Known about the structure:
605 residues
Amino acid sequence: MSGFRIQTALLALLLAPVALAQSFPWDSDKPPVLTPNDYPPVADQAPATATAPPQALPGNQSVAPAMAQNQPPPSVEVGTLGMAEGPPVGLLDSSNGGLGQSIWNGSPRADMEALLERAPLASADPVLRGLTEQLVLTKADAPIGAAQRAFTTLRIEKLLDAGLIEEAGALAAQASIPDDTDFARVQADALLTANRTSDVCTDKTSTRLSAPEPFWLQLRVYCAATSGDQPTADLTQSVLAAQGKDDKAFDVLLDDVLNHKTAPPGAIAQPTALHVFLLQQAGLPVTGDIAAKMGTAEDLLAARDPRNPLPARLAAAERIVRTGALNPAELKKLGDAEDIPLSRFANAFDDAPKLSFLEGQTVLRRAAQLEPRPQAKAALLVEALSLGEREGLLPLAAYLQSDMIAALKPMPDLTDARLFVRALLLAGLPDRARHWLKPGDVMLSVADLAAPDPAYDAELSAAFGNDAVALTKNPPDPDPDRSYKALVLGLGDVLGAPVPPDAKAQAGALEAQNWGGKRPDPGIMRQIEQASGRPERKGEALLLIVDQLHELGLRDLSPDVTVEFVRLLGAMGLPDAARAVACEAAMLYVPPPPPPPVTAPVAAQ
Length: 605
């Protein structure tokens, strides 16, 4: 037999499992389950308009009488079966912060999929990100019902999109869902991106043994070559070449890994998680160009790698600044390392709003460092925080500028002093925040609530008592902080802060009032209240709460709604979540401006 015929025969043998898997998608030890796609196409059957001859029935009956009565045939209901999920997986259980294995059992599957897809896991808000992460990582049975995708697949994807690479890889390593190509690819992407070498060539990626797509064929090449099965690696490479799917970058990276080299692969037109894995295995950086074509996880790797040029790292960081993937300390370090010409600081105040978020914050921060005049320094920092608030990124801006604000001496005549107080509280500096406050300011209660200290209990109790008296006056005294005081008193009440008995009795009535601000749709609010009272719907209740907090924003949410959310979180057995939401709400809330005075009409002359 000639060499060509031998190679052809070997190629046929190699492709046989692929062709067989495409034609008969079942395991050899299981009976086949046919789908509509396994039957001949309609075009191969008799035309639909053709009339079949009447068929004889027992007793010389005919189908004609039944047809003459125009009776419709029995109806056939078509539905989508629930999807097999495999055993429950998760990194959090009852021993380390999990929410319970049955948190989805009473919730409709389709609704939970939709809520999970838009859940704010990729968020620069640390509270919303933390609550969503706890939910996604909880080991629990998937909700029951018709499904488009496996729930575990959605969870792994959410983790990758949020830059939680290690968590995505660990969850993927636990999971097993047979005969689900969608899950198989997401699982492989997570294992590869997380650089989990010990998992990549195991049964967790068994799809590589039969799937014909280039990604899986390349993974088969890698696994065969690294295990010493060079004939299979060479033959699979021949299949890729025959399909016109050869990939020079993949070849270079594989050679790097096998021969311990670090030759750059050059441009990669369509990078995949396998390229990212091979780069890490070869000791090469995930470049900014590669990351820009992919997603949050790759941008995170590019931004963190000191082997990349600083401009590329900053660009990658800027692309994911709203996801929370890079923590504020990392962002500050990157910004401080940037080489900015002195000439740019002269117009920092005017230029910053035109720049990207991180660059604008960096320019204002560096300009404030160089500014010797306290008032001008304060103005630059106020602008930085104001930009953060307008972009919905005040917690991040607060951290980036907190050391500069903390170094300032309080300025009694500064009109934006409260913005500094909120920023210092968000950055975890309550003592510095108190230096900017005058006695009786509601922000003192916020500081005491955010950083409980027995030394301030008496102060906080007195403030709550005074606020309760002022809020229940009829008619009320003019007070721009009226709704703010109602919010803080209500939060103190549900969190168990030292609220005096008289004030506690009045707090309930205040919480029942409909204060101004954004509110959820009444139907959604009823759904949250119903779900929160049932342990088997805890996941649904928490998803709905974080969804509403993300959509409406704590800055503008009505105080009574915020207090109710905190109360529900506490009633669900989530005291840490309740306190986190309460403290952030108290720091972010901005009372609505008072209505304009009503002017009496002028009488006609």
